[in-house]
UniProtKB/TrEMBL annotation:
Protein name: NADPH-dependent curcumin reductase CurA
CDD domains with a match to the protein in the record: PGDH
Lineage: superkingdom: Bacteria
Oxidoreductase is among the record's keywords: yes
Keywords: Oxidoreductase
Positions of the Enoyl reductase (ER) domain: 15-328
Coiled coil: none
Amino acid sequence: QQQILLKERPNGMPTRSTFQYEETDVVQPTEGEVQLKTLYLSVDPYMRGRMNDAKSYTAPFQVGEPLNGGIVAVVTKSHSNGLQEGDVVTGMLEWKEYNTVDADAVRKLDLHGVSSSAALGVLGMPGLTAYFGMYKIGEPKEGETVVISGAAGAVGSVAGQLAKIKGARVIGIVGSKEKADYIKSLGFDEAINYKTDNLKEVLKEHCPDGIDVYFENVGGEISDHILPHLNTFARVPVCGSISSYNLEKGERDIGVRVQGFLVKARVKMQGFLVRDFEDQFQEAYKALASYIEAGELQYEETIHEGIERVPEAFIGLFKGENIGKQLVKVSEK
Ligand code: NDP
């Protein structure tokens, strides 16, 4: 079977030579273990941070070791009472075609009738991130103005629809016309294309009453344009800042202009990690599934076929090549 290792730490944008493919044996399970065939493998922006040799909230990947992340897999052999052959599970697993792990390391999926791939998107980590960021920190109220950057991605597209459910006016910022059309089709009130629109002018036009919630996914220049519009007591869930993830060593990060706006408007700006809300995951899964069932929450996936396309899928995140959740389909059930 094939597995993917971190070949070298990237400086700036990752390339094909960040990754190394290697043949390795499929391991037989022993007592309490299961053998899993990978169906879907998730590529996520946070993995770029783990490629650096820097202390952070998750340990760095090691050069020469397999990469890992969220995976949906089917049980092909079971030596555990809890799981049977054919069960579909998810967990943090290594990037290989077959993983053999303790049965406790994975969770059996109960997907409420949607595709198992959703466990890595709308009904997985990105969906939960949108839910907690928007509902526990952003707390949008009816009639308020909510702006979301990275709005056509896995987190942003869900965050926007959750704000709509609460009756807010929602404006999304995206990097292409196709994505602008997509988020409008989801019910976003306005879409701004930061590559072609004059951000300064369009924000003035679309946010005449200022901004009450800014769901921050990208940082950098885009956010520099948004922050001056924050209303008194606005909330800013700081989910990520993807525009800075591939800065080369020595390049200056952004953020120097933030503080002035926060003080002036007494803004609450809070960074968060989805795992801070672990004790409420069940509540969130249920709520998200019920919104999908009611037709209030839609989702899109960009799926590349074949384990050989993992580097392309990952690098594509930083080039805006995905709509909704980016996944790689490794094999059929
Ligand atoms: P996405 O599906 O949104 O994919 C990334 C998208 O980001 C791209 O498609 C692109 O869209 C946009 N993008 C890439 N580079 C830039 C750039 N330089 N400037 C502006 N936009 C850019 O990924 P996710 O939904 O998985 O993640 C979104 C954010 O949420 C990330 O910052 C991520 O790190 C963060 N996150 C945080 C979590 C937490 O616990 N705090 C958990 C999960 C995610 P476009 O074409 O519109 O530019």
